[in-house]
Amino acid sequence: MSRARRRDTAPEVAIRREAHRRGLRYRVDAALPGMSRRRADMTFIGRRVAVFVDGCFWHSCPVHGTTPAANRDWWVAKLERNRERDHETDEHLHDLGWTVLRFWEHEDPIAAVDVIEHAVRRDGPGGRTLA
């Protein structure tokens, strides 16, 4: 587990590169408000948007997620706790008025940034978009 990258994975970098190309500016691996030990892959502080690029193994993707056969009970508990932690983080941020966007590592980076850009450029409850 110590060799698993916590940040700057290839899917995350691809999404960040495309977002930057479109003129979006963000913070990388920033601590979340009220949750100092949890971090988002990308945050748009002023717009209150948090973006997570979840790995298929670590976050139990329904399409690609697997469970190791060796020490299976431990891994099942570990991966379940990861899902619970993701849910707790989402709930906490929603309660603070943040928009939470989660993408799987196998998703198309351009399609992911389309969603991110829409969320970041939208202006409040009225849904106006910023130029």
Descriptive keywords:
single chain; 131 residues; 37% helix; alpha+beta; 24% strand; two-stranded antiparallel ribbon; 3 helices; Endonuclease, Chain A; four-stranded mixed beta sheet
- Note the total helix count: 3
Report the strand count. Answer: 6
Number of domains: 1
Order of adjacent strands in the largest pleated sheet: 1-2-3-4
Q: Report the end-to-end length measured between terminal Cα atoms.
A: 43 Å
Shape: globular
CATH class: Alpha Beta
CATH topology: Endonuclease, Chain A
**Average pLDDT level:** 88
Q: What is the succession of H and E elements? A: HEEEHEHEE
Task: Give helix % range.
Answer: 25-40%
Radius of gyration using CA atoms only: 16 Å
Low-confidence stretches: 125-131
Q: State the fourth-level CATH superfamily.
A: VSR Endonuclease
CATH architectural type = 3-Layer(aba) Sandwich
